[in-house]
Amino acid sequence: MKIGVISADASHESRVAITPDAVKKLRKLGFEVIIQSGAGIASYYSDESYQAAGATIAASSADVMSDSRIITTVNDLPAAMIDNLTTGQIVVGMLDPYRNTQLDAYAAKGATVYAMELLPRTLSRAQNMDVLSSQANLAGYKAVLMAANEYSRPFPMFMTSAGTVKPAKVVILGVGVAGLQAIATAKRLGAVVEASDLRPSAREQVESLGGKWLDVPMSEEEAQKAKSTGGYAWTPSEQYMTDQAAVVDKALSGADIVITTAQIPGRQAPRLVHKTTLDKMKAGSVLIDMAAGTGGNVEGSVPDQTITTDNGVRIVGAANIPSELAAQSSDLYANNLVNFIATLIKEPATDDVSSQALALHLDMEDEIQGALAVTHDGQVRLAKR
Known about the structure:
Largest sheet: 8 strands, mixed
Strand order of the largest sheet: 3-2-1-4-5-6-16-17
Number of helices: 13
Shape: globular
Order of helices and strands: EHEHEHEHEHEHEEEHEHEHHEHEEEHHEE
């Protein structure tokens, strides 16, 4: 049974779904791997490295599509490739399911499509398949380096004969996986770091990394409400939202670097920084909007562009940061895919793969498979949001 790897659109994506190391792991499971020629070049994986790992090189995506039972991808397939799908084929990738307008087309072709973003992250056995965490971790790190490159001053404090250089003040908005890695990286570079999140429970994580929590006063009743839900299912009051906005506005007014990370699957990114706040920021300060590709946390941000406001604030629309670290991002993503694909095998493969006929077991009742499957048996399974 063959797993196919197609080349991504190089204009906006440098990652590849399966790396040479992942090919070795898939072959050990009993699969053959066919990869489109040049698919790994942007991630610094040559055709020769895939061949050395045991993969077959195909001349075109059409050859990959026609020969493969499972097709792996980083992003959604182009419409022309969907047209070439046949009943029973499987597609696995990050497909932005709640925004994807092609799910009906997948279903019409009889393909089973798994969107890796839908992985239940609370399941311990699913942790090694979590593409959102693996990619966000790298993105948080790279966002700080991007900010350092844009900023016209150093991050750490310097003592020189000409005077003292003050450390940069960095504010992180959104303390998920990306935000926590951004805090850790900025601290390692010597910056003073502050952070805010809608979840009060994130305070302990921020402070454990050496960051300062931007505290928002709350009533005892609201504090108990937030604590009882762990913060994740907490719906704050309008007064809390207003108070938090005021605290954030004050922090950003004195910030040198701001990194925003807040994204909501299937929805537009929440607006965290408005023009009124931008107008108060210092000339030369830098904002890295990691949600630029899904609507933007920062008013005026443009995906894949850097703009400068009238008062000299630079806004970087960082729509796809993991692609900037293509080699490592691909390696982690490929491992995530291999771990998920292993769950599709009916019986564990033996070391002697030639002695067994590899069989798939697609189980929509399985807590992982069922959660990730957006089309199956000619139907779109994804619930509307």
